[in-house]
Amino acid sequence: MKHHVGEHKAKKGLIRIEFDEREGIAEHVKITGDFFMHPEETVQELERELEGHKLEELEQIIDEFFAVRMDVEMPYVNVEDFKIALKNALRE
Amino acid sequence: MSLRVLVFDSGDPKFDLAFEEALARLRARDKIPDTLRLWRTSRSVVLGYFRSAEEDVNLDVASNEGIPLIRRFSGGGTVYLDRGCVNYSIVMKREVEFPISYLYGTVLQGTLTALESLGLSPYLRNTNDVVVNGRKVSGTAASIRWGVLFLHGSVLVDADLMTLRALLRVPGRLKPSVDPVKYRVANLLEFVEGLDVDSVMDALIGGYSKVLSEDAYVDEPSKEELDVARILYRFKYSHEEWNLRLPSSHLA
């Protein structure tokens, strides 16, 4: 099992994505940082979406997750910032 | 229109944080009007919603000193509070197109106006860090949910900065994109001789009633506010799985 951690500093707020890799699958996905997202629980929903998926699918899941979430506001942070944090984690 | 002001001190920082959420929930249901709360609490570390305790806090210092860690329901960074900090919270409903810009761009001017009335020249850095003479004196966090706009902040007046520095971990090497002012904090007392917490509270009431163009009146917490805060305390803010654990397993 390999632990991946990736960080990215957005315009305001640091985003950190970490997870364990087991046979190419992401487990124990955690997203932390000092960014803002409203409503806040959205982050747990995103963690759950990513959980149990193949590493190569994660980026697309992030895209699709935010594409349909019209209720979510992320001041000074955007979808690309989450994807960059993910790419940094995958590169580890 | 008039602005309801609560000056309420529960004596327990966990209850104080539960009370914050009670305000937002009750405002959502129109059980209370727009409210400005001013409060102080005992020594505590308040984590932003998405923060990790291990990363931000020297846990051994907190445990040796018996300082509780409490997670708040808004995002942003981790702060240290003690009775030398004046905290304010504003809960309101407004039909605005861009609620976050409204909160940080317009409402937060209440804090700047307050500090100006104390003879200071405050300005904002990084959208919501309040800076005086190049030092951060107040941090701010917002939340929008249930149709409610919520903004809260903590002003360092005469806080124990030694304890703050011992408790809060600063990353060893800051990325060039991180503004170091975040970690250069100061008490207002350094800039205004003899300043006390009551004057800062009065200044905040003045600042917010001016910015919101409303007359302030001081009120007591309602029974319902205390009841809801007690419930939130019992089910959420008194539990380590909310306070210490990252929010995946939390009781929303």
From TrEMBL, chain A:
Ranges of residues in domain Lipoate protein ligase C-terminal: 7-64
GO molecular function annotation: ATP binding; lipoate-protein ligase activity
Root EC class: ligase
Alphabetized UniProt keyword annotations: ATP-binding, Ligase, Nucleotide-binding
GO biological process: protein lipoylation
Pathway: Protein modification; protein lipoylation via exogenous pathway; protein N(6)-(lipoyl)lysine from lipoate: step 2/2; Protein modification; protein lipoylation via exogenous pathway; protein N(6)-(lipoyl)lysine from lipoate: step 1/2
EC number: 6.3.1.20
Short name of one Pfam family: Lip_prot_lig_C
Record flagged with keyword Ligase: yes
Record keyword Nucleotide-binding present: yes
Protein name, as recorded: lipoate--protein ligase
